[in-house]
Write a structure and sequence with these properties.
- By secondary structure, the protein is of the alpha/beta class.
- It has a single domain (2-214), classed as Ribonuclease Z/Hydroxyacylglutathione hydrolase-like (Metallo-beta-lactamase, Chain A, 4-Layer Sandwich).
- It contains 5 helices and 11 strands, in the order E-E-E-H-E-H-H-E-H-H-E-E-E-E-E-E.
- A 6-stranded mixed sheet has the order 1-2-3-4-5-6. Strands 7-8-9-10-11 form a 5-stranded antiparallel sheet, with no helix packed on it.
- Helix 4 packs antiparallel against helix 5.
Length: 216
């Protein structure tokens, strides 16, 4: 097993974490890096991995710093499914469509300025058509349901209390009678949000925690 981090490492934006198992590459979240325009442009053009090699994506929640780069994946050969809760599926589609419109508008503004200086134009990462293609790959599930990702890999989502549909992700890999469990928190908790259920005051983490445990 190999874990690699392609965003939200030493920062809280652009969550992208790769889990490599025998015969499987799973991506936990695929978010946009959010920051100054030039830096964000560079970080989001280079995801840090080959999307064609990813077998499946597991999405913790809909916020753009966790989901916003998803429509880029099919542009570079990703052909797998995106597993997420049903509420996250609904919210993510809205978030990504809005993100696409913002990018198109922002690029139009920048290109007007750059054109006056004789510089090359910039393009949005994706548009609403790309979002619609991506949404067809969504596989919505409920909390606690067991998903069979491959013969040796299963996954499930568990209420993280951050936004509607947010889920901590449990991935299990079984081989030769031994099981290794990967726990991915996503963002946890939110204060004073009755619709999400009661949470202890200190049960809040912005930024993901990844843990690997044998035989859990």
């Amino acid at each position: 097993m190999k874990l690699s981090f392609h965003g939200a490492a030493r920062s809280v934006t652009g969550s992208r974490h790769m889990v490599e198992l025998p015969g499987q590459r799973l991506l936990l979240d695929c978010g946009l890096f959010q920051g100054r325009r030039e830096e964000a442009h560079f970080q989001n053009r280079d995801l840090g991995f080959d999307p064609k090699s990813v077998n499946a994506v597991l999405l913790s929640h809909a916020h753009v710093d966790h989901s916003g780069a998803l429509p880029v994946l099919p542009q570079h050969g990703f052909s797998g499914k995106v597993f997420l809760t049903r509420a996250t599926a609904d919210l993510t589609q809205l978030m990504l469509e809005d993100s696409a419109r913002v990018q198109v508008s922002d690029c139009s503004y920048v290109n007007k300025k750059e054109h006056r200086k004789g510089r090359a134009s910039v393009r949005p990462l994706y548009n609403t058509d790309d979002v619609r293609k991506l949404v067809r790959r969504f596989e919505g599930t409920r909390y606690g349901d067991l998903l069979k990702i491959s013969p040796r890999v299963t996954a499930s989502f568990h209420d993280a209390g951050h936004i509607l549909g947010s889920g901590a992700i449990r991935v299990k890999y079984t081989a030769r009678g031994n099981t290794t469990t990967i726990l991915f928190s996503g963002d946890l908790g939110r204060s004073n949000m009755p619709i999400l259920g009661a949470r202890p005051r200190n049960a809040f983490t912005h930024g993901a925690i990844v843990a690997v445990v044998d035989d859990l």
